[in-house]
Amino acid sequence: MPPPGQTPLARAKAIALRQLASRMRTEAQVRARLARDGLEAEADETVAWLRRLGYLDDAAYARARARSLVAGGRLGPRVAERRLVGEGIGAGEARAAVAAALAGEAGEDPRAAELALCRALAERRTRGRPLADLDASGLRRLSRFLLGRGFSGPVVARALGVYEDQDG
């Protein structure tokens, strides 16, 4: 129940600030939270106010979130992109943020970075057992795991030594 005399706009701003106090959010997430409390009419003004204050920045959110999603090979680029889109980031912006996260600060090629992350995750998954020692069943199981984590088929095949493509 809102405090007596509090306007809907003041209530919307208070809810948005509380939500942003714990971690960064996207505009879509803030709007969804306001809608849950029946404050859709105040969403535009609240979002504009948050942007003016510098508290709401979808591009910064996408960059930070992409870095955390692909860090250490937690997720491959395809799943990371889907997560960002699901959190309210546009598809193009999500793809760019993930590519930048893969490239890192060293300016590394995103494809080479994806391969390195995939190999690292494969090695962690096998608990130090050499990938060459896996039988066909083990390779299939590991391939499904890596594909499910969002790595591309060619990258998984290269990481597991199934084949080396000509341009890569």
From TrEMBL:
Residues 114-160 form the RecX third three-helical domain. It is found in: Cytoplasm. Its main location: cytoplasm. Residues 12-49 form the RecX first three-helical domain. It holds the Pfam family RecX_HTH1. Gene3D superfamilies: Winged helix-like DNA-binding domain superfamily/Winged helix DNA-binding domain. It comes from the Bacteria. Keywords: Cytoplasm. GO terms for cellular component: cytoplasm. GO terms for biological process: regulation of DNA repair. Belongs to the RecX family. Modulates RecA activity. This is Regulatory protein RecX. It comes from Anaeromyxobacter dehalogenans (strain 2CP-C).
